[in-house]
Design goal:
With 256 residues, this protein is of the alpha+beta class. The protein is 20% helix and 41% strand.
């Protein structure tokens, strides 16, 4: 496919009430894209440390993925779709837009702005503020049990639009992360009542990566807004994904 060129979009100084919400949703994606490992310190007295240690693994530092993005505002009946090749290589994030359609406003002020903001955060080295680590979160103990899964509540240690107040959903034996869900620890603006996030994971060729991210916001005067992002990986940490990993992604796509 060749080298992906870095894209940067100039954003208008005048922002509508919808734009801050989408910017906040983007920052949550950074949690996975720039720091996918759940790094748990061996020091300290975090009561959930033993349970979380099973998720301590090498981070995703490099990937190439095809991303499908969709955004919608119900009240104003606006929606748009965007598809792009995305690459992370250490501290560098690049993207190339392949196709786009729908509302020009949503495309330019939401979906393209999300990619540009993600690039900016990674370039500025801010991804660590969003990682699932004891520096950012207090982890609940004991783990709460559900049907076939295990829950661990996560409480942000500060009010930050990069953090989620919610829970991790693990496999029943606690050996893998399935999902992170909750609401932003801090609303991104006066115009936003709540922003809920759901992030689904899968293990591809032994590496945990996000497959989908969904954000749903309640906006003052603008109603409900939604954004979904789906990922199809071509390579992870410099290795081409296997056929079995491709089948896993295909199965997840069918189940959506």
């Amino acid at each position: 496919m060749g080298q992906i060129a870095a894209h940067r979009y100039v954003r208008s100084a005048r922002r509508s009430p919808i734009v801050p919400m989408w910017g906040a949703a983007l920052t949550l994606l950074t949690l996975i894209l720039a720091g996918a490992a759940l790094s748990v310190s061996a020091e300290g007295q975090d009561p959930a440390r033993e349970q979380l240690a099973v998720l301590d693994e090498a981070p995703v530092t490099k990937y190439r993925a095809y991303r499908r993005m969709y955004a919608q505002n119900e009240k104003f009946d606006k929606e748009a779709w965007l598809e792009a090749w995305t690459e992370l290589d250490g501290d560098t994030f690049r993207y190339e837009i392949v196709s786009e359609r729908g509302s020009e406003y949503v495309l330019n002020k939401v979906l393209k702005a999300v990619l540009a903001r993600e690039q900016e955060l990674i370039d500025n080295g801010e991804a660590g503020r969003a990682e699932l680590t004891p520096a950012n979160y207090q982890f609940d103990e004991p783990a709460r049990q559900g049907t076939g899964v295990r829950y661990i509540l996560i409480k942000p240690k500060r009010k930050d639009i990069l953090l989620v107040d919610g829970r991790m959903v693990l496999t029943q034996d606690g050996t893998d992360l399935l999902r992170v869900e909750g609401r932003l620890a801090k609303n991104p603006s006066f115009w936003t009542n709540t922003v809920n996030i759901i992030r689904e994971f899968a293990r591809l060729d032994g590496v945990r990566v996000p497959l989908t991210t969904e954000s749903i916001a309640r906006l003052k005067f603008a109603g409900r807004a939604r954004m979904t992002v789906h990922y199809e990986y071509e390579s992870i940490n410099g290795r081409q994904v296997s056929m079995s990993a491709r089948r896993t992604m295909a199965s997840a796509a069918v189940g959506r």
